[in-house]
Design a protein that fits this description.
Elements (H helix, E strand, L loop, with lengths): L4 E4 L6 H7 L3 E4 L5 H11 L5 E4 L11 H9 L5 E5 L12 H18 L10 E4 H6 L9 H12 L2 E5 L5
Parallel strand pairs: 1-2, 4-6
Antiparallel strand pairs: 3-5, 4-5
Length: 166
């Protein structure tokens, strides 16, 4: 059974109200940080087999969910990361320094851990049990890289191209 959990991590734009009105379960995480919000979602999804993370700012496209989720469901990958750099991006969606930083980090991950990735994107799917086994510690913006690096040691990581909006 699918469920949508939205973690409100200090948003002031009304996202929590919109999500609740649309039928999502809204969880509030007062500790600031991307990792703290992701962890709160993990804690809230106690009955889930597979977790899918995506940003709520409409930059990730939920209509591509099957492409991110599919390889995990089929057992082809344990962690799937959507790649904004392989997909289509609206002009200005990612500033040049962000693209450079992603490419540099992806290259370092490949050199140090042998995992070929093209993005550190938020749109990702992983089995809950696998994520728990990674023993995540980073509660700020290091969460995505920590997940990738730890997963490189234990599980199969792959990327899937998807469209990205600004």
């Amino acid at each position: 059974m699918a469920a949508v959990i939205v973690v409100n991590n200090g948003s002031t734009d009304g996202t929590a109200g919109v999500a609740s009105a649309a039928g999502a379960r809204v969880v509030t995480e007062p500790e600031r940080g991307y990792g703290a919000a992701c962890w709160a979602g993990l804690d809230a999804a106690v009955d889930a087999d597979i977790l899918v993370y995506l940003d709520g700012d409409a930059s990730d496209q939920p209509e591509e969910l099957a492409n991110i989720l599919g390889p995990v469901v089929r057992g082809q990958a344990d962690l799937v990361i959507g790649s904004r750099l392989l997909g289509r991006r609206e002009a200005g969606a990612m500033p040049p320094h962000a693209v450079f930083g992603i490419l540099l980090t992806a290259r370092l991950v490949r050199l140090l851990y042998g995992v070929r990735i093209t993005d550190l994107g938020s749109f990702r799917a992983i089995r809950r049990a696998d994520l728990v086994s990674l023993d995540m510690r980073e509660l700020t913006y290091g969460w995505p890289v920590e997940m990738i690096v730890k997963a490189a040691h234990f599980i199969l990581v792959t990327t899937f191209r998807y469209s990205f909006r600004s």
